[in-house]
Amino acid sequence: MSENFKRSLGLVDATSLVAGSMIGSGIFIVTSIMMRDIGSAGWLIVLWLLTGLITVFAALSYGELAGMMPGAGGQYVYIQRAYGKMASFLYGWTVFAVIQTGVIAAVAVAFAKYAGVFFPGLNNVLWEVSSTFKITFGQVIAIGSIIVLTKLNAGGVENGKWLQVIFTGAKVIALFSLIVLGLAIGVNSGRLAENFQDMWVAKKTIINDDKSITTVALTGFALLGALGATIINSLFSSDAWNNVTFIAGEIKNPQKNIPRSLFLGTLIVTIIYILANLAYLALLPIHGGPDGKNAVDQGIMFAFDDRLGSSAASMIIGNAGVFVMAGLIMISTFGCNNGLILAGSRLFYAMSKDGLFFKKASNLNKNSVPGIALWIQCIWASILCLSGKYGDLLVYSTFASLLFYILTIGGIFVLRKKEPEADRPYKAFGYPYIPVLYILLTLAICIDLLIYDSKNAGMGLLIVLLGIPIYFFANRKSE
């Protein structure tokens, strides 16, 4: 087996991977969830702006570490150099347990959700184990999509590269079409102005068991808590931007191209996301009902099965828009998962090299890619698909991911002190202010989640902590 990666990806490829990994299912789904949580057009846009700011801040800081350590493994390698082997193992363990595989599973479930527009039977139960555990045809489709993409990526990085460029292009075109046509139609209808009339009045909307609706006014600390809890949705939609660093060993001139691709990719996606939300607000009313007969009656809050992208498209080209947008979103989620699958296996390859993952995962196949690591990732992500709970996977993975972003950005300060003479082709923009601001903002969100969504955030924290005994076992076995 070859033991060297091929450096065949340029700046466009790397930027495509950053943007493509970020744009998946979230932007077409989570705004409905967020609107039920806060019910305010003004606060919704603030949250997406804040999400973009946090993500760009992280990318501007992260580039310093990427330039210093332009090898495969990305964040795992950065954390190890700054904090040691145990901290990096906890990161790698959490990525395997829920961050990378959980996001792959969530995106695959969303792929199947939109496939359900064409094949409603996908919601039917294939196998019922108990009243709480059922396997649907949709979950089988989700698993099938992961297997297909894993097989394609095992064929070599060139396969993954061209898939990424094609699918990223397709979904950017889809989003721009939604934005341009949506704003053009919506602005003339006056709906955008209508939705912004009481833009700072925030309310939480709760659907009761009998499908009646209860609203709770949000002010003061209750508003801060709701904002901090629901921003996890937009952060999920903007996550995975760091995946490009996992494949640094396959990028040409990584010291320059990785920092550039991180900044360009996150900036492009931030602009697209804010415009997409303005298009939603221009096309659909905020309020509606879960029993609405059409997209207008359902509103943004109650878009059918949270498929807001399809609801918005139906306002542009009628009922056909539901199918057109569903098809484009399937392309989007498929392309997103291609980037995630391509990148994640490289981290497990790096862990295996350190003796902290399955030994054979350190082997490269005849196509110079970590084939065994790809299939191990595929198996666990497929198992997570069987939970079918998009929202739970979202919170677990994003909360855990934020904890390690804080640790990683903190590593810039640690390494500046430990290794002041180390070669730094790129230095963190705005150091120390932007990295500190990122850490403080993200830490505040994590604390808020532990208070206001303690069950799901606590589960994410528990998954991280479970890695401690596993580390000692794996390390002892390795020695």
Q: What's the total count of β strands?
A: 4
Q: Based on the structure, what is the oligomeric state of the protein chains?
A: single chain
Main CATH class? Mainly Alpha
What can be said about the biggest beta sheet? 2 strands, antiparallel
CATH topology: Amino acid/polyamine transporter I
Number of domains: 1
How widely separated are the two ends? 25 Å
* Averaged pLDDT: 87
CATH arch. level architecture: Up-down Bundle
Number of helices: 17
Global shape: globular
Describe the structure.
It contains 17 helices and four strands. It has 479 residues and is mainly α. The chain has a two-stranded antiparallel ribbon with strand order 1-2. Strands 3-4 form a two-stranded antiparallel sheet. Helix 16 crosses helix 17. The protein starts with 10 loop residues before the first helix and ends with a helix.
Task: Considering the chains and any ligands shown, give keywords for the structure.
single chain; two-stranded antiparallel ribbon; two-stranded antiparallel sheet; 17 helices; 4 strands; globular
Topology record:
Blueprint: H1 11-22, H2 30-38, H3 41-68, H4 75-83, H5 85-118, E1 125-128, E2 134-136, H6 137-154, H7 157-189, H8 191-195, E3 202-207, E4 213-218, H9 220-237, H10 254-283, H11 295-298, H12 308-317, H13 319-353, H14 371-385, H15 390-418, H16 433-452, H17 454-478
Antiparallel strand pairs: 1-2, 3-4
Helix pairs in contact: 1-7, 1-10, 1-13, 2-9, 3-9, 3-10, 3-15, 3-16, 4-5, 4-15, 5-6, 5-13, 5-14, 5-15, 5-17, 6-7, 6-13, 6-14, 7-10, 7-12, 7-13, 9-15, 9-16, 12-13, 13-14, 15-16, 15-17, 16-17
